[in-house]
């Protein structure tokens, strides 16, 4: 049996570095462009090509940043809040919610709070009655969810994973734009590198999670209509579509939202049968292609990206990565993802409102705290 020596590699050593506390706030856009908030209404924009290198330029007001975005024909993707606290890295993403004035609470957060509030209403008393904070008993209570709670939480987790995929794709675009600026490749030179594999994975993850959120929402609707969503009978949008009848319209607000958007429609040749249409049909077809028929990056045209001048005299460029679709060859990947992300974000934001359930932010009082344990930092023992 191998035994560790009493001393391991003590000839040379150094502490693993820890970053000092810091906060970063970005607004990410299509094309790899982003703005960094420095202070109240003071922004840097990046990257801008100047003197043969990528630079962050500032300061601009929020309105000036929006003007640059419009000039570039770009689209806002979301807000990234990140940084370090006590050496720990953290990052969160809040998508742009179309028609909403405040983007602070994402659909993922709303559905998480819906699930949590349903739990608090139904079983928080069980936690308060615990004589000792036994982890197994707490876990048993927390995991004993109703179908509606479980599906609301599943919607939240899928949307959060989808947000993470968009964040990573946006970061990839930004990195590639910066790299090509420094390399002087801003005149359409096509190239690829090993980091493309990460891009392919995040694209796959985006469409996979979007489809999961769609199907969890379908199961949520089915459960409220009294269909069996607990044992897999009606657990996808396709299964819901097959079970729906004309009389179901008008009795479930989230279903009515889909009907109002004309994303679920009665078939002309069978007036008591439903079909998907519009955006829901379009995104389902693309999702099935990317997830089931061929992964993104398997088509030759998708293996290379390049930079396009938007306003070269001002140093404004964008990164372009094609996605191959039927009869369309030069659509930018992030533009396509942005369009579907916005439609999906708006749907789940409106669905949370239409549900009639409590989506208020969860708050805790001293009565809600079952157990509290604190630990001292090593430095506090000295």
Structure description:
The protein has helices at 62-71, 107-128, 135-143, 147-183, 196-224, 237-243, 253-260, 278-293, 333-354; strands at 22-29, 34-39, 42-50, 53-60, 76-85, 88-95, 264-266, 274-276, 306-311, 316-320, 322-325, 328-332. The protein is an alpha+beta fold and 382 residues long. The strands form four sheets. Strands 4-3-2-1-5-6 form a six-stranded antiparallel sheet. Strands 7-8 form a two-stranded antiparallel sheet. The longest helix has 37 residues, at 147-183. The radius of gyration is 25 Å and the shape is globular. The model has no long low-confidence stretch (mean pLDDT 89).
Write the layout of secondary structure elements.
Blueprint: E1 22-29, E2 34-39, E3 42-50, E4 53-60, H1 62-71, E5 76-85, E6 88-95, H2 107-128, H3 135-143, H4 147-183, H5 196-224, H6 237-243, H7 253-260, E7 264-266, E8 274-276, H8 278-293, E9 306-311, E10 316-320, E11 322-325, E12 328-332, H9 333-354
Antiparallel strand pairs: 1-2, 1-5, 2-3, 3-4, 5-6, 7-8, 9-10, 11-12
Helix pairs in contact: 2-4, 2-9, 4-5, 4-9, 5-6, 5-8, 7-9
Task: Give a quick set of tags describing it.
9 helices, six-stranded antiparallel beta sheet, 382 residues, alpha+beta, 12 strands
